[in-house]
């Protein structure tokens, strides 16, 4: 019997590694990626690089969908469905999507004559390359028997039968990825800040029932603050968290801990860790960003007495004028100013806009970032420091 011809759509972090593993076997592999450059190196390993999803699907009997989310998967399939038939072909949904999205995709593929297999996986780049992924097979027993041996190249295949349950299993497991890295980050931050030797902590932890191998896997990254070459990005972890949160709420399961994790992940994204390894969450736990702290207050004294102005020496402070305009400003140092003319609105993130005008003494604290909107020409005396 000829080996089954396989297509793989989406050669991102996971898809590329799955392709590398499959290319060690003897199944012809057709790959497609929106950014072609990310799939080109697979040609030297034996893959055929296709110009469109339709070309790859047409060539294959089994198609791996390893795309970011349900939306990306639908877009890629929509590009193909006009141009090639899905009839008789098996589509493996490897990317993580929700149980409802799984059902919807199953319906769409089945309507077009294809077979749908939910195949979420646990494990990342390295496990895919080594063939030690854990694959959750959500489709009929008949399909399971047909594909079991082939899929075993990638790791251990667990028969789940119901595609929706396979998707839910994956969300349940990914919830543990989130809570274990945040839990570890909390304890490890405490260890470092109490100046306890990390190895002492790890030696005790490794001997205990609390230990989880992820801790040792991520430890070198935490110690070196190196979150580059992600195995699994924070952006995708947030996507999975949202899917999980929706599911928990639908099932009336307490979601408060996950909501707190969401805040931490969103903070990490704000700090630019979106495309970094998810262990970068440690940075937010260890050193909450000043952005999360209450921004310092602007003090406004509406009618300062003449004696106060004299005492401060306001008349001798330099003058500053500016026409109607708007601009962002950051105060490295405290600045006091006395408004002689005009009006402006000061916008500070998460605060009510503040109007300042003629006759007011205004103190901008050091560290403040704000936006000035001058609504009528401003003239002011000012003093830095
Ligand atoms: N990484 C892991 O360890 C891991 C483990 C288990 C499950 N997963 C799941 O597997 C899926 C892929 O993860 P990944 O880590 O490989 O992500 P990734 O590196 O970000 O790759 C995403 C892939 O989707 C493609 N894509 C995104 N939007 C697209 C669109 N609108 N049209 C066409 N292609 C689009 C990207 O193409 P471009 O290259 O052109 O951007 C890329 O090939 C996700 O659902 C993830 O949650 C990942």
TrEMBL record:
Taxonomic source organism: Candidatus Methylacidiphilum infernorum
Residues spanning the signal sequence: none
PANTHER family assigned: GLYOXYLATE_SUCCINIC SEMIALDEHYDE REDUCTASE 1, OXIDOREDUCTASE GLYR1-RELATED
Residue span(s) of domain 6-phosphogluconate dehydrogenase NADP-binding: 5-159
Limits of the 3-hydroxyisobutyrate dehydrogenase-like NAD-binding domain: 166-284
Protein name (Swiss-Prot/TrEMBL): DUF861 domain-containing protein
Domain (S)-ureidoglycine aminohydrolase cupin, first and last residues per copy: 310-382
InterPro entries: 6-PGluconate_DH-like_C_sf (IPR008927), 6PGD_dom2 (IPR013328), 6PGDH_NADP-bd (IPR006115), HIBADH-like_NADP-bd (IPR029154), HIBADH-related_NP60_sf (IPR051265), NAD(P)-bd_dom_sf (IPR036291), RmlC-like_jellyroll (IPR014710), RmlC_Cupin_sf (IPR011051)
